[in-house]
Amino acid sequence: MTWRATVLTIFPEMFPGPLGASLAGKALSENKWALDVLDIRDFAKDKHRSVDDTPAGGGAGMVMRADIAASAIDTAREGAAPETPTLYLSPRGKPLTQDRVRELARGPGAILLCGRFEGIDERVIEARNIEEVSIGDYVLSGGELAALVLIDACVRLLPGVAGNEGSLAEESFAEGLLEYPHYTRPRDFEGLSIPEVLLSGDHKAIAKWRREQVETLTKSRRADLWEKFKRR
Ligand code: ADE
Q1: Which fold has domain 172-230?
Q2: Tell me: the pLDDT tens digits for 143-197?
Q3: Ligand 1 atom with the shortest distance to the CA of 115
């Protein structure tokens, strides 16, 4: 079964966007994953194709209507494999992690609801059992870029997509830590040299140096990750 991303958006032209290039794009054209994009406006009930309305209780902005979002989700679910999770991209969501990305990549795919406006009627989140996911503590103008990020992170883990499976095992977050630094030619770059140990040919010493780098870097840049790693 092919891993399938089903995106619900009022900007279908944003897809595949950058996912049509590079690794993900090649894999998409080779049918190693699939992308369905549904225009939420197709589920609108009026001739203006409006999907939002003013917030109950007043205030700024507009809110996506529950009934229209629900119709779009129900249609997406009909076309997706059973057990496909529905995710709503929102800065209020649970932060996306590499562990969650791995789980999603192992599954049948994801239905991704992209918000715009102030948000979406809370009742649809409850009624359709939707998981709210954030890609970081900053606010985008909509969920589309977040959906692209999530899909990219999943697709590169699919079998046969990344090509060099070895590099996945060593990369950042493979075990919840940051990756060691990399070097290549030239040997001298603007007076900066490559750490001597990497030129020594001593594989044991190189592995030890890289491990030390992983730990030092994680401790200094991401104390939160280091604490989590120690507690495992
Ligand atoms: N939509 C707007 N901001 C977002 C964020 N940080 N993560 C996910 N979806 C979003």
Answers
A1: Trp Operon Repressor; Chain A (1.10.1270)
A2: 999 999 999 999 999 999 986 666 777 787 889 999 999 999 999 999 999 999 9
A3: 1
Computed on alpha carbons and rounded to an integer, the radius of gyration of the chain in Å comes to 22
**Pocket-testing residue among 7, 134, 151, ligand 1, by greatest number of atoms within 8 A of Cβ:** 134
Other Cβ atoms less than 10 A from the Cβ of 173: the count is 14
- The pLDDT assigned to 70 comes to 98
For the CA of 143, the closest atom of ligand 1 is 1
DSSP 52: E
Q: What's the mean per-residue pLDDT of the chain?
A: 96
Distance 116 CA to ligand 1 centre (A): 10
Backbone angles phi, psi at 211, to 5 degrees: -60, -45
As assigned by CATH, the class of the 3-155 domain is alpha beta
Annotated domain spans of the chain:
3-155, 172-230
pLDDT on residue 164: 61
